[in-house]
Amino acid sequence: MFDSQTSPSEDLPLLNTFYFKQIFRTLVTACLVLVFHNSALALKIMLVNDDGYDRGGLPVLFDTLKEAGHDVTIVAPKTDQSGRGTSINTDRINQPLEVVNYDTNKWYVDGTPTVTVVAGLNYILRDNPPDLVISGINPGENIGRTAVSSGTVSAAVAAINRGVPAIAVSLGVNLAESSTGFPSTIAAYKPTSDFIVRVIAQLEATKKKNAKLLPNGVGLSINVPVNGSKGIAFTRLEQFTPLDFTFGELPGGGVGLQILPVSLPSDRTPNPRSEGEQFVSGFTTITPIDGDWSASDGVRARISDRLPVQNLLP
């Protein structure tokens, strides 16, 4: 899925480790398995998603992480919670929630992705906290302004905000395959899982001694194209999204919510740091996220200048 094409911009660094030939990757992965099995590099990982505990790419990612020697526990929603964003089950506060240990190191929670993460960190794994939370693999990219509605990304943010490094992993879909269950996406779960193993290994190899895998309050949102990747771009979250929501008249009558594909104008040069624009250009995107919805200090200063306190008080 990942070829050796160079970066879309010279000032956009690439993770060159990820561009080795397939046979060399296989050998490296095999060596990593031995290292993880026999050293402190093996991580305790909590695996969550928003599709449900037995759906999406979660089962494949679980097996791949286990094969790489990591100690993995699934704590995932009982049912499909796609698009729930940061929501919590406010109607269930102080009410019993179903929490089931359905297999060894596998749990489901009858709650939203955010509630599921809190259940995992504060209850299920409270005596054995994870080094890393991974959310995914989600069938469908989570990019741009739609990312804030994503249960996949929000689950990662919930972990970040509780002091645990997190990675959200989303895999693109071909909308033309919607009637056949997105076979290209299903076929890409394994190579995407292998990619995540390499990301973890690189983060582990480059972190400071006794430090967390990522800086405090920081996570990653990774989006992988379904039909092969030209390379890897380090990006930022911006407005552009390849799949956008709209509301209007439905083909069968009535009005309702719709999802529409969005393309870049043919004469537009993709922004090298735009998550959405790089993704539609065929690149795997790695976007550092922090879950902080505050505007920048400069914006905050300009707004405070326009709203002087003395003019707001009675």
TrEMBL record:
Chain positions recorded as a divalent metal cation binding sites: D50, D51, S82, N138
Catalytic EC class: hydrolase
Cofactor, free-text remark: Binds 1 divalent metal cation per subunit.
Annotated Gene3D superfamilies: Survival protein SurE-like phosphatase/nucleotidase (3.40.1210.10)
Hydrolase as UniProt keyword: yes
Cofactor: a divalent metal cation
Domain Survival protein SurE-like phosphatase/nucleotidase: start-end pairs: 45-238
E.C. no: 3.1.3.5
Primary location group: cytoplasm
Localisation: Cytoplasm
Catalytic activity: a ribonucleoside 5'-phosphate + H2O = a ribonucleoside + phosphate
An example Gene Ontology CC term for this record: cytoplasm
Family: Belongs to the SurE nucleotidase family.
Protein name per UniProt: 5'-nucleotidase SurE
Originating species: Iningainema tapete BLCC-T55
